[in-house]
Amino acid sequence: MRERTLGSKVFDTANHIVLLIVGIVTVLPFLYVISGSLVSSEELLTKKIVLFPTHISWDAYRYIFATKVIYSSLLNSIFITVVGTLINLLLTTLMAYPLAKRTLRGRNKLMLLIVFTMLFNGGMIPTYLVVKSMGLLDTYWSLWLPSAISAFNLILLRNFFQQLPESLEESAKIDGCNELGILYKIVVPLSLPAMATFALFYAVYYWNSYFTAVLYINKSNLWPIQVWLQQIVLLSAGGFTDANALSEVVVPPESIKYAVIVVAAIPVLLLYPFLQKHFAKGVLLGSVKG
Amino acid sequence: MRLVSDMKREKLLYLMLLPGLLFFVLFKYLPMLGVVIAFQDYQPFAGILHSPWVGLKHFHRFFMDPDFWMLFKNTLLLAVYNLLFFFPLPIILALMLNEVRKHFFKRFVQTIIYIPHFISWVVVAGLTYTMLTTEGGIVNEALASLGADKVNFLLSTDWFRTLITSQAIWKETGWGTIIFLAALAGVDQQLYEAARMDGASRWQQLWSVTFPAIRTTIVLLLILRLGSFLDTGFEQIFLMLNSGNRDVGEVFDTYVYTTGLQNAQFSYSTAVGVFKSVVSLILVISANGLAKRFGEEGVY
Amino acid sequence: METRKKRNVRRKGMAAGVATVLAVSLLTACGANSNDGGEASGSSSSSSGGKAAQPVKFSAMVPFFAAQPPATDDSNPAFKALEDKTGVKLDVTFVPGSAYDDKVNVTLASGNLPQAIVVTNNKNSSVINAIRSGAFWEVGPYIKDFPNLQKYWNDQIATNISVDGKIYGIYRERPVARKGFLFRQDWLDNLGLQQPKTVDDIYNIAKAFTTDDPDKNGKNDTFGLALSSDGLASDTMIDLVTALGSFNKWGIQDGKATPDFMTPEYMEALKLLKKMYDEKLINQDFGAIKGTKVRDFINQGKAGMVTGSIDDANSQFTSLYKLIPDAKIGFVAGLEGPKGVKLPANSGYYGEFMFPKSSVKSEADLKNILSYFDKVLDPEVEKLFDFGVEGVHSKVENGNPVITNQELFANQVADLGQLRIAPSDLTWPTENDVMKKVKQMYKEQAPNAVPNVTEPFLSPTQAERGTDLDTIINDASIKFIMGSIDEAGFAKATEEWRKQGGDKMIDEFTQEYNKAQNK
Lengths: 290, 300, 519
What we know:
Largest sheet of chain C: 5 strands, mixed
Protein name (chain C): Extracellular solute-binding protein
Low-confidence stretches of chain C: 1-19, 24-52
Mean pLDDT of chain C: 87
Pfam families (chain C): SBP_bac_1 (PF01547)
Number of helices of chain B: 16
Number of helices of chain C: 19
Helix content of chain C: 40-55%
Shape of chain C: globular
Oligomer: heterotrimer
Distance between the termini of chain C: 79 Å
Helix content of chain B: over 70%
Strand content of chain C: 15-25%
CATH superfamily of the largest domain in chain C: Periplasmic binding protein-like II
CATH class of the largest domain in chain C: Alpha Beta
Keywords (chain C): Cell membrane, Lipoprotein, Membrane, Palmitate, Signal
Mean pLDDT of chain B: 90
Largest sheet of chain B: none
Number of strands of chain B: 0
Distance between the termini of chain B: 26 Å
CATH topology of the largest domain in chain B: MetI-like fold
Structural class of chain C: alpha/beta
Signal peptide (chain C): 1-34
Low-confidence stretches of chain B: none
InterPro entries (chain C): Bact_solute-bd_prot1, SBP
Strand order of the largest sheet of chain C: 2-1-3-13-4
Radius of gyration of chain C: 26 Å
């Protein structure tokens, strides 16, 4: 290792300490959520903050997984998320690449038109009518196609592509690659951190979305897990306060609300480390250049 | 003529654009026709064709609403708070993480700081209540044990913006770093080598190598943020809103929900949305122009 | 090269074509006179009266509130029994309660309506507009043809769902006399106090619950009345105001529709709550509490009283019983005042089944579907909704049904109840004592329930800014109780309410009222 100056050491130490504090501040409430899911509702009611439950109770998880549909809907969710993320990445990349070419005619006009879609939208009913008239209702296409490209991600991905040195592409062109080849063989591999990022963004979007599923899909056996989780959270949070609603509705205890969050968050949390390795510094860039 | 030859040369590029364009036309521009209902008394059953046209009636009602300026001021202030206090934090945090040499520590911190993103606002609001209530909330208990007066944080107009901004910072800062970390991952390590050769200190390296690498991303995100400047996050605010803080807490989004959507007044809600969009459009165009004047590429 | 280009052009052409078709369909999405929209996912019941052998089929959309909807195929014996007993094939779409209103609106917009649809927000403008454009069958004239329905029919509730004096649906009945005070009976017993009978009792009990250590733990850690910011308007205030002899939200005074807060009784109730707040008989943070969170105070064993539906006593305090096994919850609906025992009436229904003309094509079809709703009122079917299938969900003990498998019942039967119209107010000897008492109180107190006189009326102003206007008064009430505004401040809020549309609302309701009186 290179010798380090005192200033550098102070810098590092201070940096570590601050980051550690940030980490603790963010993780403590989550610890509270996990503990909240593991204690009995009575303990949760009487104690204000439980960080380490004295008596672990799995009731909340038992309640959630007693709902049989949870299992099949978990598979639905995984399917929706995986296929959806792939579709989105493909379409976004395909579109971002040409738009990153500074020589492309009409590029700025197109970009303006894309930005425009971020500002104005027709709202729930017109989108529903389009989805319906294309015959997508009751299929997963109704979840994938209407959100196949996020303008936000497209603009950012284009920005990543734009920052790649053009010389790389030129040399590939001389080697006889066409644009698709360049995109597949050079641009995408060089942009792995960006691709990992947008894969994460899209995956989280699909994983968390439930309203569109309820809106576009009538068959409850096709619903993703979030529909049930939302239903459970709303029940326990007293979302249905209409005094006229059926009183037979059993309100699940507070701890279920927390268990739901844990159940919903864990798959995505598991995804992160896999994507994270692509954030390692200076992936291929140095080597390709060298 | 040149156009034709250019097109030919680039036809593959245009072909690649095609699926995306089709998507934007079908799923963005086609539904966007729906904004015309801002000028109608739209009824879902009647459809756009059979709903009566009412011109600017809804805009008139909106601008003449005695609360319009209050809403505008509240929304604007929250947006400015967000921009000043929240927006820079993910950048700073990403830069700090980038300086960490110990891989394990870096990954560890990186993984935990984005967890709060997955905790729903309902729970965040619940936690906030648990900590801040005057009926045995830990903060007020602590204040009381120090002999200080209890503070009614939740019902106070003075604390509302601080509360909302802090919640947003806690929940979204870690998540916000991801995009910057991706940008930083693309930095050529040789540039650091070169800088070190020139005897640059850590600070100098940060300023001359690291920061420039994410500058365009920052500018881009800033412009895009302005595109949703008046979107204050409905759910979060709605959950924290009460009769005590409504004077500073009611914003366009909550107003649209209570007056518009809850009563199925689609036209009125759309009119308010159009107003917000126009403001955003002006902001984006100005910001983009400004960015270009400073030599940045901008969005378009 | 050449062909590729052509194909490209053709594809573009196709895209444009698709776009045009879509644009057209978007614009003409439905409309009152579109005939094709009807094919709801199930087959329609076009086979009419003549062939009685064929079972009637129809599609329905209803909300559900449990963790999951019941299966609607042969795997669910309860559903199968329902189809067998009513002689109907049902194609049911269950929609999560939280998204139900949105779903109704997009369904209305798409024109693709099921043959029977539960509408819960039946007074909002998109539904009223659809009714006025002739989207739904008027069912009023048919009720007399069905003996069970005719018996079920309650003119007061029917008036409440009427639009322009006509009935467009079958209401799903709910108890009218349901609101009241719930309290810790064991605390009352500890202190030797009687259940509250008057408004003064409420104050005195709250005081005793706060200062007299009702839980006998030697600590000053309890308070009287748990209050929430939304429960104030929906329960606590109207409970007190009606008991004091004034209106349930709206009444008629000097021939004019008048909101309760313009009567002196409202201020009297506010002052009482303010006094209780100042004496710390009420949780000091109630302005920041919404929804069911208010019950936490009871469940924690901190508070002694709360307002709500009396049947909450049966289902909402399970945590309390686990925490304090000796705890007991009592309840009263209605308090004695200058005009006798009074309580605020509920509207008497939760949503109504409506029948779109686009999917229910003929009168014969409508009658077939109505016959289902006639049959669900049979005691046999009612029993099915309450206890599921004998041998699967329940058994018979001493001649009375008892649920044997709670979990299976919750999964398969509970939310089938969305397909019934009568509440489960049949009392079974096997039912627990709390529910028996609750149901008895429903019946006893029904004559004392004060209706909101504007319930059947439509006011365009209320539809447009009702929520805003309510907020003005609710905020002012909360601020008054907390002491940040005084009586003059409340008067100013009332003035504001009138200016921003309240006066118009008064006029509109008065007109509607006069119209109804002259009939």
